[in-house]
Design a protein that fits this description.
170 residues, alpha+beta, three-stranded antiparallel sheet, 44% helix, 16% strand, RNaseH-like_sf, Transposase
């Protein structure tokens, strides 16, 4: 496999989404080193594929660029490349999902708590500021979790608040 080369995935577009599988173990030779990579992939559901295709086309229109058919085809798959060879494909994809949840938590903290820029210049002040923000984030997460499982009506024979459907805001 050469860098920048095409990787073809052939499967019938009408076939059901297969279970995740390890597609290949690829070895890259770097001077004085051999790098072994696993490529794990699975096909998205038809609904996910269509949603991804719609987003790609909308982005292409905004940037006034034509979306290539290869890009649309690739958007129908989730592909994870890793150096972890001790896990099977299911384990690698589960680990990727957990990693993505951590990524989303940091993104949420950055936007809600103003963590995008470090406000202090000296190391001690920066450390204290960051630890304070992380403490606030943990407290907020705890309050949200508690609020989701608390109902003032509980014990009075009614449903818990988390069991009732939410009302639309708009």
């Amino acid at each position: 496999m050469r860098f920048g080369g095409d990787v073809r995935v052939s499967a019938s577009s009408t076939a059901p989404a297969p279970s995740p599988s390890r597609l290949a173990v690829v070895r890259f030779h770097v001077p004085r080193r051999c790098l072994s990579l696993s490529i794990c992939a699975y096909r998205k559901t038809e609904e996910q594929r269509l949603e991804g295709e719609r987003k790609l086309k909308r982005t292409g229109q905004k940037k006034q660029k034509q979306v290539q058919s290869k890009t649309v085809e690739a958007a129908g798959y989730v592909v994870v490349v890793t150096t972890l060879n001790c896990l099977d494909a299911q384990g690698i994809l589960a680990l990727y999902r957990h990693r993505w949840q951590v990524e989303l938590a940091f993104k949420r903290m950055k936007s809600l708590l103003g963590l995008s820029h470090l406000r202090k210049k000296n190391p001690e002040g920066a450390k204290a500021w960051l630890q304070g923000k992380l403490l606030v984030a943990c407290l907020i997460e705890r309050l949200i979790a508690t609020g989701e499982h608390f109902s003032p009506l509980e014990g009075q024979g009614s449903q818990r608040a988390s069991d009732t459907p939410a009302l639309p805001l708009a």
